[in-house]
Design brief:
Length: 277
Amino acid sequence: MKKLIFFLLSVALSNLISAQDIIIKKNGDELSGKVQEITLTEVKYKKADNPDGPVISILKGDVFMIKYENGTKDVFEKEEIEEEKLENSYTGGYISELTKIANTLKKANYPLNLVLIMNEKITYGRDEIITNPNRIKKRKEEFIDAFFKFYNKNDSKFNFGPENSTDGPRLIAIVEPQYTLPGYMFKFYYRVTYGLIPKGVKEISGINDLNFNFLFGYSLYTSDNDYYHAAAHLVGRVFSIYRDLITGRYIKVGFFKNEELNFISKKPAPIGTEIIK
């Protein structure tokens, strides 16, 4: 009798185990449970030992395979996310617009050039706003010199476009510093507006230039303790946004999450007034 009971328990346990879905992660970990939903970015499931418990979500990019209780399986290792189907709820309402832009930039692989337009009314200062004209001039020169130093340094490092930028349209990033918010690590606010200019056009006057075809923009800031490093971080961010768009890195969960409210989808009004070549 005991052997019969043991046999029946073994069969029941075997059936219970086989009735579970097995999620195999890329690091080799296996998760047993019942898959509830698979979205473009996540796999949602309930634990096998707590079927009435909460739904657990893991990144789809971390999953190698799912073995379902009916014997079928899904393999995700080589699956590519269909960018045009990304849900707006994924990282914000701007994602569909950004996806279209990313696809355009990826196909064309434009060279990227930066244009700096300073605002005459920009405030400078770390512990307090600077009002002395000579000190303002010094800080301004410090920022401009560092901007172009790091621009020239990063141009070859981050520029994914062809070396000869006169062969076709160019992608222009117009950088417009706005103001400084003093503090222990002061915040330097700026706006960067990306757009295309036609072949043969060498100069533009700003975002309202007839040759500047607006694509998108961001209102951002950098936190630093001097304008030299503020310029370095600013330039690096402008280039990395372009890099992340054409390489698809922006699709990762959480990317641009802190910037979604700062995304600019329509051509904004100019800020800068003084063009710095």
